[in-house]
Amino acid sequence: MGVSYVPVAKAGEIGPGKTKAVELGGRRVLVAQVDGRYFAFARECPHEGADLETGELAGGKVRCNNHSYWYDLGTGECVMPKGGPQLTVLPVEEREGELCIRLEW
Ligand code: FES
């Protein structure tokens, strides 16, 4: 299995509580800083496709503005309501001053 790292932002470019929209292989992805940690996740809400860029970030989670579903950004699990659809999340690592999304293939 191979691993590659796709740089998506400079370290420090994304402030606390902020997101950066990027494209990865034609998919729309948000990179966010929440409480000092970085996360990357699909920009489209898996419920009915609302844009999560307008969502609220708090406590390692994002809340969709459309129907207020909450997703854990570490696991992608829908935590409110329980058992809701899974959000696609991608691992982010800081490497030599850049935030990179780690892809395994
Ligand atoms: S579209 Fe996001 S919660 Fe319904």
Features:
single chain; 105 residues; mainly beta; Rieske Iron-sulfur Protein; four-stranded antiparallel sheet; 50% strand; globular; binds FE2/S2 (inorganic) cluster
Give a description of the structure.
It is a single chain. The protein has a single domain (about 5-105), classed as 3-layer Sandwich (Rieske Iron-sulfur Protein). The chain is built from no helices and eleven strands. It has strands spanning about 5-10, 20-25, 25-35, 35-40, 55-60, 60-65, 70, 80, 90, 90-95, 100-105. The model has no long low-confidence stretch (mean pLDDT about 95). The structure holds FE2/S2 (inorganic) cluster. FE2/S2 (inorganic) cluster (FES) binds next to loops.
Instruction: Give the CATH architecture.
Output: 3-layer Sandwich
Unique bound compounds: FE2/S2 (inorganic) cluster
Q: What's the helix count?
A: 0
CATH class: Mainly Beta
Count of extended strands: 11
Helix-strand category: mainly beta
Characterize the largest beta sheet: strand count, sense, and whether it forms a barrel. 4 strands, antiparallel
The CATH homologous superfamily is called Rieske [2Fe-2S] iron-sulphur domain
As for the CATH topology, it is: Rieske Iron-sulfur Protein
Shape: globular
Our estimate of the beta-strand percent is: over 45%
What would you call the quaternary organization? single chain
Radius of gyration: 13 Å
Query: What is the chain-wise order of helices and strands?
Result: EEEEEEEEEEE
Biggest β-sheet: strands ordered side by side in the sheet? 2-3-4-9
